[in-house]
Amino acid sequence: MPAIHGLNKTTLLDYPGRVAATIFLGSCNFRCPFCQNSGLVLHPADEPTISEEEVLSFLKKRQGILEGVCISGGEPTLASDLEDFIRKIRALGYPVKLDTNGTRPDILKHLTESGLIQMAAVDIKACPDNYPSLTGMLHPDLDAVRETVDFLLHANLDYEFRTTVVKELHNENDFIEIGQWLKGAQAYYLQAYKDSEEVLQPGFSSYSLEDLEHFRDILHQTIPVVGIRGID
Questions:
Q1: C-beta atoms surrounding 38 within 10 Å
Q2: How far apart are CA 180 and CA 177, in angstroms?
Q3: What is the rounded distance in angstroms from the CA atom of residue 15 to the CA atom of residue 99?
Q4: HSE (CB half, 13 Å, CA atoms) of 202?
Q5: Up-side HSE of residue 58: CA atoms within 13 Å toward CB?
Q6: Where are the beta strands (DSSP E) in the chain?
Q7: Which candidate among 8, 71, 97, 207 keeps its CA 20 to 30 Å from the CA of 16?
Q8: Are 67 and 34 in contact, with CB atoms under 8 Å apart?
Q9: How far is CA 56 from the centre of its chain?
Q10: CB atoms within 10 A of CB 125
Q11: What is the DSSP letter of 166?
């Protein structure tokens, strides 16, 4: 079974248009300094776990109430038994949305082509040149992320791209380049950064709504649906 470290039993945010539950898996191959789930990234083995049986039992009881399941992390595609776990969720009749950083395109493709996921959300960290700063990795696997982006732009799968915008780490050029990179994408969301004690490196800040609207206008030139999330 995958290492399940969290279960949000009801969310209206994580699976757009659906009342859903969100399952959090441990481990990640990035070290994004602004990550809100630092425990799952840095020391997942020390985090409390929930059994697969408990999660599936909960989902079975909520059939007819919940409308979908979101699998997040960490980076869920690192779980070796992810496919088997998703099959069990699908057997209960739930559509599944996968949150990913895009570094495992083969897994995303396989899950899509097997009909196991019905939506994907890919975190676009920054423009390609800025990926090392945003991922905490000297050589992040940009080829893999590009392959994921290209697949989703042409696949028959519901998807969205999104970027958590950090004032100290992003600038206007990021969004000019992202707009060209993701040209014609189905949907893209700017997420306002929120600082907390759970952040891998606390102390960053968010842009103002006015600034985020400016970035949205830049992106809207090439992407038909661009939204802003997380502004109170």
A1: 20
A2: 5
A3: 10
A4: 5
A5: 18
A6: 4-11, 20-25, 68-72, 96-100, 119-123, 158-165, 188-192, 226-229
A7: 207
A8: no
A9: 22
A10: 29
A11: -
